[in-house]
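Teaching assistant here, posting this on the class forum so everyone can see the example we discussed in section. The complex has two components, and the goal was to see what a joint structure prediction looks like when all of them are supplied at once.
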Amino acid sequence: MIEQFLKPATVDEAVRLKRQYGDKAVFMAGGSKLNAAPTRTDKKVAISLAGLRLDAVALDNGQLRLGATLTLQQLIDDSRVPVALREAAGFVYSRNLRNQSTLGGELCAKQDEAVLTPVLLALDAELIYADGAVVALERFLAGGADSADALLVALRLPDPERPCATRKVARSVAGLRVLTAAVALSSAGPCIAVEGVTPTPLRLRDIEARALNDAALEQAVSAAVAPEDDLRGSVAYKRYIAGIVVADLLADLSSGTPTARKEI
Amino acid sequence: MTIRFSLNGCAREFVGKAGENVQSLLFGLGLRSVRNSDDGFGFAGSDSIRVNGRIVNASLLIAAQLDGAVVETAESLGTWNQLSIVQQAMIDTGVVQSGYNDPALALILTDLLERCPEPTREEIEDALSGLYNRDGGYQQIFEAVELAQRRLGDPMAATTTIPEFRDDLVHIGKAYPKLDAAKVLQAKPSFVEDDIPANTAIIKMLRSPYPHALIKRLDVSRAEQLPGVLLVITHQNCPDVVYTPAGQTAPEPSPLDRRMFSRKLRHVGDRVAAVVAETEAIALEALALIEVDYEVLAPVMSIDAAAAPGAPVVHDERIDYVAGAPADLAEQNASAAPRDERMVFNFPIGARPRENIVAQVHGKIGDPVAGFAEADAIIERTYASKQVQHSPNEPHICHTYMDGDRLVVRASTQVPWHIRRQVSRIVGMKQNKVHVIKQRVGGGFGSKQDMLLEEVCAWATCVTGRSVLFRYTREEEFIACSSRHVAQVTVRVGAKKDGRITAVHMDFKANTGPYGNHAMTVPCNGPGLSLPLYPCDNVSFKVTTYYSNICPNGAFQGYGAPKGNFALTMAISELAAELGLDALEMIEKNRVQEGQALKVMKAVSEGKVPAAVPTAASCALTPIIAKGRELIEWDKPRPPQGDWRFGRGMAIIMQKSGIPDIDQANCLVKLESDGTFIVLSGGADIGTGLDTVVAKLTAEVLCCPIEHVTVVSGDTDHTLFDKGAYASSGTCYSGNAAKLAAEALRAKILFHGAQMLGEAETDVQLVAPGVVQGKQGAVSLAQIAHRSESGTGFGVLVGTASFVTPKYCFPYGANFAEVAVNVRSGEIRLEKFYALLDCGTPVNPELALGQIYGASMRAIGHSLTEEIVYDASGVPLTRDLRSYGAPKIGDIPKDFRAFMIGSDDQVGPYGAKSISEIGVNGAAPSIAQAIHHACGVWLREWHFTPEKILKGLGKIPA
């Protein structure tokens, strides 16, 4: 149980406190994961991020900076945020949760379900830390910049106008997701990301490079993912539906038609 | 840590632990609206509060996060005991049923209307996305929002969606606020958890991690020595009494096959030891100190595994019979395990425990062999259903304490009288020393018909003398409850070319799990409530129920009817397709007609064969099917759109209104000094509105306003015996008892009124508002009551009555569904769902609609998203609402409508029939039929998933 709740007023103070308490402490933004029964923290000290004013949305030279403590509902309510990211935030089917969960928390928790991550991967999001370090989300997910002491202060979308679409597959609106996928169209070609059917959220770069469409893309994605049999579905189903979803997202984006279905 | 915050407009200060859970904190401060349905998983939203203007889950916050915050709970909504516009709209549209998390709903809707005065459907759904409400199917919430919106402009705006019935009656068939709605909505003390003394001890249960095991060694000494531990109950020190958890009339048809604790563990979650401690934290710490060595046994997890030769035996203890022991009992007992344990059958139900068979029943009418020989086409198919859970918002809970030499049991139960009988026997007290009080029940749906924790709680109080609380976690609801029996139903149907059915055979196999509560009666209702829908002269059936090591099963709304009806409707539909007939035409050709004899019901029963062949005395299926057909545009197919295909399906359904010759209800109505009435009803209102039914019936008979009637119910000290809330008996049995008691009192009132007037009894009548009117004068009820209580009076006037009947009272209905199936992704979208029911005269129309929506949505959830799933070793994986697939508002059909089409029935009070259960019986077959119509795939196993569609379409390997 949290025994000490520290309320720094500045980012520097928060970082200093983390250095001081080390492994005993955890940064807490909304607390929807750290306080939830299945993922409750065993740390004794919480360093609150609530007073750090890290919830701004800012456009800068065509790049979009999203504060780490923006709640998912704030993302949805801000028209400057890319539509696909707003839709992905809505995949968390609980306004109660969305009022509490933060963008940074969704990433740093590295939970099994990461429904925002494919969109952020497809948009080449970068993580900005308190010390000014910038780490590509893809590298972060691969464990390349994982540090519990580092304080994530914002995300940066270098190309927020990039056409992007996302879709979640689940049996019920609030049930366990089978997969989430996102596809974006960059100047270099399609950006394809999935989660739920790979060990961690992943850009499918090999497939992106092959510039496939339709059935060929379906088959390539089906072959590329590595799902497991579980109560969400069989391996065969997950491979099949991953290919379908990615191919449909790309087809919709390429044709310029809005995605007819955000969720399956 | 000192935390200062604003709570409902008042400055508050809390000194305590920074990490204290805010739900516990606020509930402990008396904010009862902040309830707990899911132990901090963030799914249910019963703990919704508004913090700094945003709705969040209290259980996902710690106390320190409240420092400096503005906190609002649902207690802030009303002022001076007056309901807010939103709260009143919820009541007027029938939204409030159990009321357990309706305060949270009211807060969310209030927030919505403040943010968004004219919300769209999408915005309403979005606002409610954080709330799980099992009661009412969500649909009426849209009407409540619309009404609240209108009342913000016009405070006098009225509901427009509640139909009225029976112009000849004053109260019956008219909307009236549910008697307890305001109280539960304002979160006034209503539920068991709302009134727990501070020094109450807590029970926590150590449960088996294995589906099948023996306790080899159990050492609780370290737990017992932990300061704050009062008692540890195990198989070594619990009462040596066998019983059934089933809340049924004695002698129970269910086997007495469980002991409070046993050396043998038969499912993941079975009881190993209960710790009774001063606090929950101490109890949990003590659980970790208990040492257990298990001998792990091979589990049986399915019907086929249980039936296989040489299968592990779930019940290997000695078998005894109270009556009718089989001739080979000694032979059966020769292989009994050498443990000092036994199971008892009150009478034979065809059990063969060593073969894992707990019950077997078979029967026939006519000549099925000849019937099949006569058929032009015969089809035989097997249909299966998975295990699903009731998942009420309020978990099981019980609070016990001693009142002098008497044991008081405050329970959230459907069966207070059965609980008293069972607890008395188990703890060894006479029934006059045990007082069971049914509190408001936060949803039951059958699960609270079984005794799952009351006897442990009672025993803990008996031993320690302490006030004791036992509340299930949500995980315990899944692993230690009584879910729906798993079924495997093989149906053979023969028919002529024109679709006329010539013979039917149903082989109903059920998996009861580790204990046999309702093991015979649930499966018997499979054929019992499906075969009579299609009266046929040549019918045979067989029912076999198996023990296994899945988590326990028991009573569940609908009993066996949803599974039997799914199988039979699907078989008829498949046969219709083979014959080239429209499924609805074939159903119409063979379905039950009003007045028709239901011969098969003489052969299949719940333990007592009817004295005479029951008839469908009242049945409105003709207008129901006509209306449903028109509404869904049955004859106008929808063309495909891209990958989407559209299809329609329908199923007819029936239920009973109590069990003739088995059920009984009693009631007493007394005249108070001022001419008002107090009704002492044994009936158990579990959120369905039974108390309101009883009040309306009393007021109708006694010609008084409903406000002049107060109902006291479900209390074994202060009311008369009633078998409880199950088998859809409430309105018919408890209602009839109230009506008869009121009529008995009316006769006395007229007798004494006539005497006071000096007129002949034949010349007086009781008229509104509570006046005995003679030819020459009138005397009020208050004057009669005053006279009765005077020193020269005739004594307090009381009417009592008991209701039993050999007659059946069947509600009928139909579900019509339209689905869209995406043949590329397998997605199933429920476009339309229309539930049309003949519940006779609906006593509370707005509440009846809520019952229909709620039951329909539970059945839709069971059909499309819900399932208890196990891993290969028999360990359940779905132990929370989310992984289980509990539906939320975004899962309801796009077009969801309920209709009541009455018929004239002579058994129920003023022609009322039951309403609550029948609604779960038709979703699966109507949806499955629609799926086939859309894409050509027959899905023969609940639940229906995109993966199964894709397999059926050959897109992925089967």
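For the discussion questions: The longest helix of chain A spans residues 235-255. Chain A touches chain B at residues 1-5, 7, 31-32, 35-38, 40, 46, 48, 50, 73, 93-97, 99-100, 169, 171-176, 230-231, 233-234, 236-237, 240-241, 244-245, 248, 260-261, 264 (CB under 8 Å). Think about how each of these relates to the inputs above.
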